[in-house]
Design a protein that fits this description.
This protein is an alpha/beta fold and about 400 residues long. The chain folds into two domains: about 270 residues, Rossmann fold (3-Layer(aba) Sandwich), CATH 3.40.50; about 80 residues, formyl-coa transferase, domain 3, CATH 3.30.1540.10. It is about 40% helix and about 15% strand. The chain is built from 18 helices and eleven strands. The strands form three sheets. It has a six-stranded parallel sheet with strand order 3-2-1-4-5-6, with helices on both faces. Strands 7-8-9 form a three-stranded antiparallel sheet, covered by helices on one side. A two-stranded antiparallel sheet has the order 10-11. It is elongated and about 85 Å long.
């Protein structure tokens, strides 16, 4: 592997990350995982709140920050001060991409409009992540991930039908917006190769959620059907559910295709089910979904999970256990593909986290270091990137700008 390949496909790309929490920083994490130099600007007093987030704080530190802050350089800058804004502009002038996820209008208040930046740096790509986008009547509203998940349609269809809407156990709206922003950055950089000009990537939380809502809008438009919460199933798609096993364990089985269902029926010792008019076709199984799930659940309840997995895998029926972190760490598939890697942390020692995805055959991404200490790279970046002298850096520190 060449040196450039080892550094990643985005080696040579400089990104200034100006944002907090998840939506903007996860975009920066993705770019950094694949080799971009990501310089994160943080408030000198507290830094990104993700440094303090987490259910527990081992050794007084967040286990969240090493992941979302990985592969980044931390530079402290007080963006509320004119000197900090001028310093940010100077750093942006050296970059290919700037990421921000402040409420729309904040960058404008700081004099960092895209128009003024693009006039000086026409090749600059600016990724702007917000709740509702940069335009429209809701643009200036505060918009966290849960609001985007609700407005984009995800919350209404998540959970059990007899209970209020549930949430996923992660900040999925923020992550979807970050991923769309990262895709937009790569599209804009590709376009720049032809035009020589950068552009704005406007990633809204609610639109990023809406993008993955499949045929929800079109189905309503054509039929008037409003998709509702359906718990662990998708109505009309059967069998595809969570089923009980002996000893209180559970298994996921997806046997909704005709040929797959025939293999499942054979595995159950009930090959006649595949010929029964109630279950012989995809449509019929959808109509009789509850009854069919009951038959399968009665059968799975008599099996230990590992034995049942082996039986279904032998018959070519898609199935799986419901993984938790301990399962991931012990699983041979995770190990074979290095889905989880270890890296050195100055306080925690060796720590485990998810690898960089997707996998590229020639220029893969990788975790080069975990989230850095607040301001760890301030002097280095101001000296080597911004071109400041040591006396200038000392003056900025004395003034509380960095």
């Amino acid at each position: 592997m060449t040196e450039t390949a080892a550094e990643g496909p985005l080696s040579g790309l400089r990104v200034i990350e100006m944002g907090t929490l998840i939506a903007g920083p996860f975009c920066g994490q993705i770019l950094g995982d694949f080799g971009a130099e990501v310089i994160k600007l943080e408030d000198p007093g507290s830094g990104d709140p993700m440094r303090q987030w987490g259910r527990s704080l081992p050794k007084g530190l967040s286990p969240w920050w090493p992941v979302i802050g990985r592969n980044k350089k931390s530079v402290t800058v007080d963006l509320r001060k004119p000197e900090g804004q001028a310093l940010a502009r100077r750093l942006i002038g050296t970059a290919d991409v700037v990421i921000e996820n402040f409420r729309p209008g904040t960058f404008e208040k700081w004099g960092l409009t895209y128009e003024s930046l693009a006039e000086a740096y026409p090749r600059l790509v600016m990724a702007r992540v917000s709740g509702f986008g940069q335009t429209g009547p809701y643009a200036r509203r505060a918009g966290y991930g849960l609001i985007g998940e609700a407005m984009g349609g995800l919350r209404h269809v998540t959970g059990e039908p007899d209970r209020p809407p549930a949430r996923a156990g992660i900040s999925i709206g923020d992550s979807l917006a970050a991923m769309h922003a990262a895709m937009g950055v790569m599209m804009a950089l590709h376009a720049r190769e032809r035009t020589g000009r950068g552009q704005v990537v406007d990633a809204a939380l609610y639109e990023s959620v809406l993008a993955v809502m499949e045929n929800l809008v079109t189905e309503y438009d054509l039929t008037g059907y409003v998709r509702e919460r359906s718990g662990s199933i998708l109505p009309g798609i059967a069998p595809s559910n969570v089923y009980p096993c002996a000893g209180g364990e559970m298994i996921l089985i997806g046997g909704n295709g005709d040929t797959v269902f025939a293999r499942l029926a054979e595995a159950m010792g009930r090959p006649e089910l595949a010929k029964d008019e109630r279950y012989a076709t995809h449509a019929a199984r959808g109509v009789n979904q509850a009854e069919l799930d009951g038959i399968i659940a009665e059968w799975t309840a008599g099996w230990r999970l590992d034995d049942l997995l082996a039986r279904l895998e032998e018959k070519g029926v898609p199935c799986g256990r419901i993984f938790r972190a301990p399962d991931m760490l012990a699983d041979p598939q995770f190990q074979a593909r290095e889905a989880i890697v270890e890296t050195d942390h100055p306080v925690f020692g060796r720590i485990k986290m998810q690898n960089a995805f997707p996998k590229l055959s020639e220029t893969p991404g990788r975790v080069r270091w975990p989230g850095p200490a607040l301001g760890q790279h301030t002097d280095e970046v101001l000296r080597e990137v911004a071109g400041l002298k040591e006396t200038e850096i000392a003056d900025l520190r004395a003034e509380g700008v960095i």
